[in-house]
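Q: Could you write out the predicted structure for this multi-component system? I'm mainly interested in how the pieces pack against one another.
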Amino acid sequence: MKTLKLALLGFGSAGRAFARLLLEKEAEIEARYDTQVAVTAIVTGSHGTLTDSAGLDLPAALDTAEAGSRFPGSDTAMEVAERGDYDALLELTPLNIRTGQPAIDHIKTAFGRGKHVVTANKGPIAWAYADLRAEARRRGCLFFYETTVMDGTPIFNLAEYTLKMARVTEVSGILNTTTNYMLQEMAAGKPYEEILAAGRRLGFIEADPAMDIEGYDAAAKLTALLNVLMDAHMTPDRVDRTGIEHITPADIQAAAKRDCVIKLVCRGTVKDGQVQATVKPVEVPRGDLLATIDATSSVVSLTTDLMGKLSIVEHDPLIEQTAYGIFGDVLRVLDGVSRG
Amino acid sequence: MKTLKLALLGFGSAGRAFARLLLEKEAEIEARYDTQVAVTAIVTGSHGTLTDSAGLDLPAALDTAEAGSRFPGSDTAMEVAERGDYDALLELTPLNIRTGQPAIDHIKTAFGRGKHVVTANKGPIAWAYADLRAEARRRGCLFFYETTVMDGTPIFNLAEYTLKMARVTEVSGILNTTTNYMLQEMAAGKPYEEILAAGRRLGFIEADPAMDIEGYDAAAKLTALLNVLMDAHMTPDRVDRTGIEHITPADIQAAAKRDCVIKLVCRGTVKDGQVQATVKPVEVPRGDLLATIDATSSVVSLTTDLMGKLSIVEHDPLIEQTAYGIFGDVLRVLDGVSRG
């Protein structure tokens, strides 16, 4: 039996859910791919690093992490990327939405060593996709990033595997959960501070939600879609972006009188080589698909030359759906490796 | 350059749209697959047959068909399946929703000769999927059928290529355009006979719409989904089926008072090895995704063990989207053949 060695840069809730899924599916993977998947490195943000070239004890590592205890090692993510013993790097570090770093450098380092990469971090796809794609091709490395938009919901894979030779001419959708939740709660008449408190308690809203509320997270996801699906060479700072920070309950009530709801809508096209990308609050008629996308659900619509317009909706995802995105990309690495 | 020879059983509007797309993409296919796709046989229902082992003149064949003229040959579909010179059979004959025949026999004949098959005819998938799948595997033949549900919208390919190792536990959706259009027009207050006349004029409604109105077409599509995605060994006659023939304008108005619309909803699960499959009119709340599926649009929702619930919507398809479904499956044959 062959072995595929994984280095996990980041071991937050998504990384741990991925590890649990990997353990659950261990026997099925071995039967299907004649390959054992071994985790040889786990790097945390502030709880140390665990490495073992022979494959570390994943159940024990999960116990340690969930108890809030530390791993004994001190190698940084970059040190593991540079010197770790792995076949595929899993880039799961926290997003730096302003630069995509240091995740971009982790990925470049892995490609420089001829290693495959799976990223759940959208920064590199939003800031450096074309470069990274080119470098992966030059080095013969696999590079997958399904999780960067809508968790494990197939968007990039949908376009690549199921819409062959069709060209995407427009993307649109609702991509940010926090603002979608907030707008819905505002429409239900709840006070702003109460929404923030409840959203933080439920895990929908981060301690500092500015990146969500100001539309920057949505802009980064839109940029990732444009870069991958439409070869747009875009960066998030070039998106025409308006957040929901100035939307008032009165605006929402006025929209309701017109039988509309307000949603933070992303839209991108390429016309005559010019990218047009906007993120802004839009009044959507209640009979429109976008209006039915509830709190933590999301949607991407693709307009294509050959297959018309399609939409894919993710309903009420949990962290297991993020884990599945990473897992599915690791299966694609296994497919690619076994095919040679 | 290699050649892939196609035999087209059926040359109606979808077959002709496929032929136009094939011509449009000829150079791109040759560049990508180093393969020339040659149509070596076209069989029509009542306008003769055209065959040429060297590859027939497709633009001329299109002109002949669109002028309503006849092809010179008289071979039947079965004779071409049995003796034609082709690598892949395209089963595009009219659906027999009660038996799936003679399309099932055409496909079996092709497999018996070691030929690949693409079917846009859902009869074989609804009536004989497990047998055909097994026969294709025994003979090492490729077998694709994306077009049988929702045109070229990826449903079967979505599950196969983008939801690896996830198991589908429930399918649901709105799958029949005719009834969806009729219910919407009834809700707008139009008289039944006027709706039928307009629908026939626009091409949404067949001369005899009983198969649609009584839910049989939807049941066949639901059966195809259950057979492929959930290994259900189901047939359309075993679906618990209620059509829209007894829905009155008063029912629709009563639903509207409850802020609901009536939709013909398909739903299927497998519980403890028992398939539960229903097609019936359902009152759907206006805020639900299903309520936003307009006249000729459709939707499939998949509930899975690992990726939660996803929905895919096809918006306002034209005949070109049916053609794309066939085209995409032919590209998958090219992929499979080139991979050996």
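A: Regarding packing and overall arrangement: Residues 240 and 278 of chain B are 5 Å apart (CA to CA).
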